[in-house]
Design brief:
alpha/beta; 8 helices; disordered N terminus
Amino acid sequence: MTPTEPAGSRKTTTRVASLSNTKISSVNEIADPLNLLSEINLAMLPRHIAFIMDGNRRWAKERRLNKLEGHRAGVKTVREAVEMTLDINRLTGTDSIEILTFYAFSKENWKRPLLEVSGLMQIFEKAAIREIEKLHERNIQVFILGNLNDLPGSLHKRVQDIRNLTAKNTGLKINFALSYSGRNEIVKGVKKLFQDYKDGKVNIDDLDERSFAKYLDTGELPDPDLLIRTSGEMRFSNFLLWQIAYTELWVTPIYWPDFRRSHYLQALKDYQKRDRRFGGP
């Protein structure tokens, strides 16, 4: 995983940025979750929310903890984000928020120290074992984006088990990006397209953006409406590069392990203030 901090260590100011609107605003304090929830229009929620879960290692370093403790804390935050989403959907009486996508581990992350990477793989595998039945019981469908063949054999099997067990579920969809690279995803898509062209399955004259998107890891899922990034970094880190063309970006300096329901709700509230023109007037 690629994130509130100790009192006084950072000013808790939330920066908000938009891909389709270059203004950056500030929120000096995060309000009470119940107050925030009352200010959110439950009829105007994003269908697809993506998360760049940044800051686990810095969170651990500031607490003089092992890096892996930051990643373990990050797993708990994933669980809380899912719980918050399910709670919101229960309030609306439908799956208003249909999809969550979590950037768990990039292809570039393999360059990290061996002990950290191996420890992360163990954390992922333990989380998969612990959560598989809970996800299934809640009618959640799990997808995996990225290069699964890069994963250790035991984790690869756990991931496949989750996909198979939840394949027919009809509730919230959750994507976990593992050994994922946005550029690599596009290249893989081009190769699949070219193979279909050689096999006579595709007429190049009929190719458009929508039909090409089917060759990507996300398939026919709708693009993210909102991308939440923690730890304050203002970049996309090779994540969903094709899919985020008109996604709204919300950035907070909070490290991922300290990302709470109040931050999530603030992101939704700010999202609803955006004027999404998709390049139009």
